[in-house]
Design goal:
The complex is a heterodimer of chains A (about 400) and B (about 250).
Chain A (H helix, E strand, L loop, with lengths): L1 H13 L34 H9 L11 E6 L2 E7 L4 E5 H7 L17 H9 L4 E5 L9 E7 L4 E11 L4 E10 L5 E12 L4 E9 L3 E12 L4 E8 L5 E4 L2 E4 L5 E10 L4 E10 L5 E10 L3 E10 L5 E10 L5 E10 L5 E9 L3 H8 L5 H13 L8 H18 L1
Parallel strand pairs in A: 1-5, 4-6, 5-7, 6-8, 7-9, 8-10, 9-11, 10-12, 10-13, 11-14, 12-15, 13-15, 14-16, 15-17, 16-18, 17-19, 18-20
Antiparallel strand pairs in A: 1-2, 3-4
Helix pairs in contact in A: 1-4, 5-6
Chain B lengths: L1 E10 L2 E11 L4 E5 L6 H9 L4 E10 L2 E2 L5 H7 L1 E4 L6 E5 H9 L5 H7 L9 E2 L5 H15 L3 E5 L7 H14 L12 H7 L3 E5 L13 E6 L2 E6 L1 H11 L2 H6 L2
Helix pairs in contact in B: 3-5, 5-6
Chain lengths: ~400, ~250
């Protein structure tokens, strides 16, 4: 077992200097790799008001109301971890590795450890992260929430998460990333590997609430088996210096499905290079990638890639962008690749300003120009997500609403 | 209610309305005829206040207030409502939400939708994939919620199937307070005298007139209101002689 882990570390060593394919190159040595330990809190209400409020903006409700479990990592310490529903497991990933020998078969199996310098760093500097698993046939009614919080300025946080939805189970997760108000800069590298077994369903809603000078480099990948469903929702509406990610899903089981929804807002000074990729490798698989991007002055590169390698597959890619400032840039890069006659792949992309006739239509019903514009922007961000439970839809709407206030 | 004096309007630098005088009193419904391109829609859009319809002369007065420089939304607040010919689709904004915007009475939305068989559309994106007839019903439903004192209707019957045209006609009749409905203690004559709602309706086919009575008709030719009078008489003449007859008067 140890051998397998050591092999990964050796590979990571070799990729230490390997630049990423996309996104600006980051000098990782400018961030501090260490900080003090934070004490574990049995009672989540012991967190400060400021922390609770910051987390709430990222969808993390520390009262635990309507949640099946909670994991909180602050800087490099796991400060809270509990679960209230049978069949749902949440552990510090380090503990999980000790507890389950088989976890080695999931460690860097979806994301290559030597992909780039960030995956390498996550292996060599990894400090915790979470392990979440739903046991076979179990169904989570409420979502499990996991929060990665940065409380120290200029710190590098490198975490590794593994999520397993066992056969026939249903698992809902909300992950919120947030910073303390005084934190201005820092680095977050998060590895997330998702494994969705036969006929299992996983919805993963990630809300990012970073700070202006933060560098964010998540690396995620998902493997979906026969009949499985992966639903990923990503919301990033607050300022961030640079964020680059391009999660990939491998649909390896017949009839499996992946859906990605992203809501991106780039404020002045923010640079978001975000994409979603689905590789349809098995018969009758389905994929949908939807992105809504708004710039109020920042730069967004919205990527999307669908690759159809098996018969009977159907996939669609959609990117819509609104430019609300002449300083802003939206660059949509959709890619479709088909390797079979009977694949059905399509994409739709549109980038522009708010249509004048839509504003006038609402004004003719009595709304002022500002209110009409706000209503259209709100509608633009209101994506109907098929298969998302109402409670999660509510959380997403809440997160969007909070950010809209500062946007409009 | 509405008074237009010597109105001249340009669209993209081209003069479309050259001379329009029109007065519509409270409770009156007027019908506007005219060939394609004569400026009928321009007149409605100018009254509503769309940018792009530039008033180069004359004035529009509504409820004793000059409208010339008022933005769209303020005219809507004063009580002017328009049914769009080709309204835009607004993604993510639901029909229900739009009705709440129009009327600010969320609880009445379902009842109102029922009157137009439109309940199934309440949770759909506004105008998204609506057929021609559905657009008309959607527009009238919005006007029902908005409850304006003065209605601007641009070909309310176009694209509507026979089954729905009666429904559209009845709804407009109701919006204009023109239904004949026995009311205790009041004669129809009294009700008519109390009627406040007015309207200006463009029609090409005249079908809508099978379901709705009006008061006065006008013919717009080449940017000039060249003829006014009994709307049924006018329509009959146009039906039989075409607008050629009107050309004689529009000099």
């Amino acid at each position: 077992m140890q051998r397998q882990y050591e092999d990964k570390t050796a590979l990571a060593e070799k990729a230490k200097e390997k630049p990423a394919t996309f996104g600006g190159d980051i000098d990782l040595d400018t961030f501090s790799p260490e900080t003090r330990e934070h004490p574990y809190q049995d009672d989540p209400s012991a967190f400060s008001d400021v922390e609770r409020e910051q987390m709430l903006k990222a969808g993390i409700d520390l009262t635990g109301k309507n949640r099946a479990g909670t994991f909180v990592q602050k800087d490099l310490s796991v400060v809270h971890c509990n679960t209230s529903q049978e069949g749902m497991e949440i552990l510090d990933i380090n503990q999980a590795r000790e507890k389950y020998g088989w976890l080695k078969d999931y460690w860097w199996k979806a994301v290559p450890v030597d992909m780039d310098k960030y995956t390498s760093r996550a292996e060599l500097h990894q400090e915790h992260g979470y392990f979440i698993r739903s046991l076979p046939g179990t169904r989570s009614i409420y979502p499990i929430q996991a929060c990665l919080y940065l409380g120290e300025d200029n710190l590098a946080q490198d975490v590794h998460n593994i999520i397993v939805a066992e056969e026939g189970s249903e698992l809902h997760i909300i992950t919120g990333c947030a910073t303390a108000p005084h934190v201005k800069s820092g680095l977050h590298v998060g590895i997330s590997e998702f494994y969705i077994k036969k006929n299992a369903k996983l919805t993963f809603t990630m809300i990012h609430n970073w700070a202006e000078n933060l560098v964010v480099r998540p690396r995620s990948a998902t493997i979906v088996e026969e009949g499985g469903l992966f639903l990923s929702n990503y919301i990033c509406m607050q300022p961030v210096a640079t964020l680059q990610m391009y999660p990939v899903t491998h649909l390896v089981g017949e009839g499996s499905t992946a859906r990605y929804n992203s809501i991106l807002i780039a404020t002045p000074g923010s640079e978001l290079d975000v994409g979603s990729r689905v590789l349809l490798k098995a018969k009758n698989t389905r994929a949908e990638i939807i992105a809504r991007a708004i710039t109020t002055g920042g730069k967004i590169i919205a990527r999307g890639h669908i690759k159809g390698e098996a018969p009977g597959i159907k996939a669609h890619l959609e990117c819509k962008g609104l430019i609300l400032s002449d300083e802003g840039v939206i660059h949509a890069i959709p890619e479709l690749e088909g390797y079979r006659q009977d694949v059905d792949l399509s994409h739709e992309a549109a980038v522009g300003k708010i249509a004048r006739e839509e504003v006038e239509y609402l004004m003719a019903r009595g709304l002022s120009e500002e209110k009409a514009t706000a209503t259209i922007v709100r509608g633009f961000l209101n994506v109907d997500i098929e298969g998302l439970p109402p409670e999660l839809k509510g959380e997403m709407d809440k997160a969007v609403a909070i950010s809209e206030e500062s946007l409009l | 209610m509405l008074k237009i004096e010597d109105l001249r309007v340009e669209v993209a630098g081209k003069e479309i309305l050259r001379h329009v005088d029109l007065e519509i009193n409270p409770g009156e419904t007027h019908v506007l005829f005219g060939p394609n391109g004569s400026g009928k829609t321009t007149l409605l859009m100018t009254i509503m206040g769309f940018p792009g319809y530039e008033i180069t002369g004359g004035r529009i007065v509504f409820k004793e207030k000059e409208l010339n420089d008022l933005p769209l939304n303020e005219r809507a607040s004063l009580g002017i409502g328009l049914s769009f010919q080709r309204p835009p689709t607004i993604k993510g904004v639901k029909m229900r939400q739009m009705l709440e915007i129009c009327g600010k009475e969320a609880e009445k939305v379902d009842t109102m939708a029922q009157a137009l068989n439109f309940n199934d559309f309440l949770d759909r994106d506004l105008n998204d994939g609506f057929s021609g007839g559905e657009i008309k019903r959607s527009e009238l439903l919005q006007l029902m919620a908005q409850n304006p004192d003065f209605l601007l209707l641009d070909e309310p019957e176009s694209g509507v199937d026979l089954e729905n045209i009666a429904l559209i006609g009845k709804t407009i009749e109701r919006l204009l307070e023109r239904e004949i409905k026995p009311r205790e203690g009041k004669s129809q004559k009294e009700l008519k005298r109390e009627r406040k709602k007015s309207g200006l309706i463009i029609t090409h086919t005249g079908y809508i007139l099978d379901y709705l009575d009006a008061d006065i008709g006008h013919v717009l030719m080449d940017g000039v209101l060249c003829c006014s009078g009994n709307y049924r008489e006018l329509f009959k003449c146009i039906k039989e002689q075409g607008y050629n007859e009107c050309v004689k008067c529009a000099v």
